Each structure stands twice: as C-alpha cells, then as structure tokens.
C-alpha cells in the first residue's frame, strides 16, 4: 500500500492539485498532511481525493474552527497517533519531540512538517519523514513523498 505524505501547502491551490495528481499516478490510497493547510478553502481541492486522509493543524492554520468544520475528523490537533496496516504512525507539524518519539520505539513512522525542507532518516527502527514544502514558497521547490507502507521505502517527488 502506498501513502502520500504532504505538508506546508500554504494555500497553493495549483500545487495541491499537482500533488493530488502525483498521488493518483502513484496509486496512493491514503494521504498524510503534516499541517499548514492555512485556509479552509483548501478543502475544495482535497475533497476530491478518494481515500483516507489524516491531517494535523500547523502553526499557520489560523481559522481552526472552519478548517475543522470543512475537514471534519480528517484534521486533528497535534500530536496525532494512528495505525495503518499495522504500522504505528505519529503525525505532528512542529519537530520539537520528533527525536524523543523516535527514541521511544513506539512508532514505525513519524511524519512532521514546519521546516519546509525534506528530511528522511531512521532513528533505531523508526522512519522519520518531513516531505518538505508542497507550496514551494520558501525554497522554490515543491515536494511530496510517496511511501510504500509495507517496505517503508520513501520516494521524494519534486514538482
């Protein structure tokens, strides 16, 4: 099973559409969004995804009440813990406790955002992924990650 990992979309509707196209081309069944959607109207694009969706609020998500209304249970406060196909996943926006969570050994995968730079590494048996920025505003390069959940093999895709 493949999952799409995205973060820091910051209202860039065109790049959200491009990311969803990449996810569709790669047969992604689940999207994990590590926060900073920014405006509730981003739901107009994400709602077309026909699969599971897990998200958390980021520090730039201002209208959390309307975001929650639009996304429903798909978006939660951080830190979010869940399981997909037997893989234990922690999802957050800001990275302050990534290392501690990885050291705990409780998770197979930790996903975070906020830094706008790709970070893929292992700490003990935990894979840590920051997919970089989907908006491309800060560094001029938009990125997402497609992860084979069974093998935990990530692929960074720039667009």
UniProtKB/TrEMBL annotation:
Residues in Calcineurin-like phosphoesterase domain copies: 1-151
Protein name: Phosphoesterase
CDD domains named among the record's database cross-references: MPP_YfcE
Top-rank EC class of the record's enzyme: hydrolase
Species, as recorded: Thermodesulfovibrio autotrophicus
A GO molecular function held by the record: metal ion binding
Cofactor or coenzyme needed: a divalent metal cation
Entry keyword annotation includes Metal-binding: yes
Superkingdom of source: Bacteria
Pfam families hit by this protein: Metallophos_2
Record family assignment: Belongs to the metallophosphoesterase superfamily. YfcE family.
InterPro entries: Calcineurin-like_PHP_lpxH, Metallo-depent_PP-like, MetalloPDE_YfcE-like, MPP_YfcE, Phosphodiesterase_MJ0936/Vps29
């Amino acid at each position: 099973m493949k999952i799409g990992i995205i973060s820091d979309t910051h209202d860039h509707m065109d790049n959200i559409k491009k990311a969803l196209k990449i996810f569709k081309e790669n047969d992604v069944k689940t999207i994990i969004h590590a926060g900073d959607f920014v405006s509730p109207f981003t739901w107009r694009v994400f709602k077309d995804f026909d699969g599971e969706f897990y998200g958390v609020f980021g520090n730039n998500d201002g209208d959390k009440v309307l975001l929650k209304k639009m996304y429903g249970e798909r978006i939660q406060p951080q830190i979010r813990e869940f399981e997909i196909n037997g893989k234990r996943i922690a999802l957050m926006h800001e990275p302050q406790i990534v290392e501690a969570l990885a050291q705990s050994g409780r998770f197979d995968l930790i996903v975070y955002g906020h830094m706008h730079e790709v970070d893929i590494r292992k700490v003990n048996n935990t894979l840590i992924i920051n997919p970089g920025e989907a908006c491309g505003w800060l560094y001029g390069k938009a990125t997402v990650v497609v992860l084979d959940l069974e093998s935990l093999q990530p692929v960074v895709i720039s667009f």
